[in-house]
Specification:
Blueprint lengths: L2 H19 L7 E11 L14 E13 L3 E10 L13 E13 L2 E8 L13 E2 L4 E2 L2 E10 L3 E12 L2 E15 L1 H4 L4 E12 L11 E12 L3 E17 L2 E21 L2 E11 L46 E4 L2 E3 L1 E13 L11 E18 L4 E24 L4 E12 L1 H4 L6 E13 L5 E10 L7 E9 L4 E9 L11 E11 L2 E10 L2 E5 L2 E5 L2 E11 L2
Antiparallel strand pairs: 1-2, 1-30, 2-3, 3-4, 4-5, 5-8, 6-7, 8-9, 9-10, 10-11, 11-12, 12-13, 13-14, 14-15, 15-18, 16-17, 18-19, 19-20, 20-21, 21-22, 22-23, 23-24, 24-25, 25-26, 26-27, 27-30, 28-29
Length: 553
Amino acid sequence: MNNKKTIYILLLCLFNNFILNSQILKNLTSSYESFSAYYLDDSKTGDFSYDKRFRSNNYFNLKSNIGNNWNFELQIESYAPKSLLNYSENFEKTNISTFKIDYNKNNLSVSLGNFYEQFGSGMILRSWEDKDLGINNSIRGLNAKYRINDEINISTLIGNQKKGFKYSKGFIVGFNSEFDFSKAIKNNSTFLLGLSYVGRNDQKTKSDFYPEMTNLFSARIDYSSSSFYSNFEIVNKSENPVVIFGSLSDSFIKKGSAILLNSGYFKNGLGLDFTFRRLENMSLFSEREAFGNVYNESIVNYLPALTKQHDYSLTNLYVYAAQPNVSFQSPMLTKAGEIGIQTDLYYFIENETFFGGKYGTNLSINASVWNNLDGNFDFNNQKYETELLSFGEKYFSEISFEIRKKWSEKFDNIFLFVNQYYNKRLVEETTDEVKSNIIVLENTYKLNSNKSLRLELQHLSTKDDSKNWSAIALEFNLSSAFSIYFSDLYNYQNPEKDKKIHYYNAGGSYSKGINRYTVNYGRQRGGLVCTGGICRYVPESTGLSFGITTSFF
């Protein structure tokens, strides 16, 4: 029996002893989530040669506390007979995924086991779980936090990062501090100063050309008042080898850096948000060789795409993913990171006015542009020098305009227009670019207090790539608990006739209390699926899927 299984058995025995001999059972809460699919052959999306057509991801979580000081969490996961398509191979069979013990007393908090943590905006450290993306990069180790007089917070951690049911051979150490100077301002504003450090020691890849430890330092300032907020963070990353054609270079070794500024103003129905970010060589993995893996495994920091997160299928057809890496693919394709801005303007036109009407009108405008860093790139000698605030070749840009209007007690709609530019050559490192315009009209009609009908119409126009797309979705909410839907996504102008595919889906959901059940039959379009600006690739597929989310205690 290996050491890992021995530890698990001991922990389970300890856990069982607490159940039998303490009040842990009295305070026990549990939840269960299951996402399953049965994949079918389809000449349009491809014939599957997988050994298992039925696949299922299952998550069973237990939480409890003893008294006022101790908390426990256990999560068991099962991927049987196999995990859903394009989840990491490290998710297989059934095993303990999370075991954590928390101790809290006065101003001290200590966690032992699997924990999640974030320093600042996450640019140097964020561990989190997202089942849709197949991400669970919790840290197994020790995390201690201490608060001094409600004005100083300090925390420290050390551990190995989770990847499936395995753990990285590199370890992570971190220190975070936050100082609250709000009382000194005395005008009901908040003013915080943060200083953080993260070190990654990769014991799997060793070299005489670069150190095992990679160090990141972060400093940030957060200010907010009744109508204004601003956050500024800078990061410095020590030298790290660049990955060239899948291999770590012994000569191409560069430092990294990041700058993030976010500010906003809101008052009297007007809201304005502005974000600037610059990333240079900022990817960080607990094992260097994990760089570029499609599952986001072993990723230490959080670098989402800072673009508008849309709810519609066609607005997410050419979705932008952040470009923090150095890439030298050819003399015409050299990258060192990204620089760009995003801004949002919101305005509410009051009701009982000419443009607001009886119920008022919500307007919003979003604009973003993201470019390669500008500088001197020497492909032959594998080196570069960048300029701090200069914009290089464009990766992506978008302008969107949205109107949300309630016309009566029963009817409201949303109109959205989006103009996009997407550079496939630079972002995907392939060829071509795409310029497109997208129109969305969403209409909701309430039949009565429990029933409603929603119709969604979309169209994407472009002369590039696979040409024009259309989409339609119809949802009927029969009650607050039960709904059914049908949708179709169609690339009707694809120049290749055999790729003019209807990506249809039909299904429904039923909710009762804290329980929710879903079922869907249809085709999945291949491409990026994104949550919160982080994406994973999913292949095309056809099949029946269903999900269960429930709690027991």
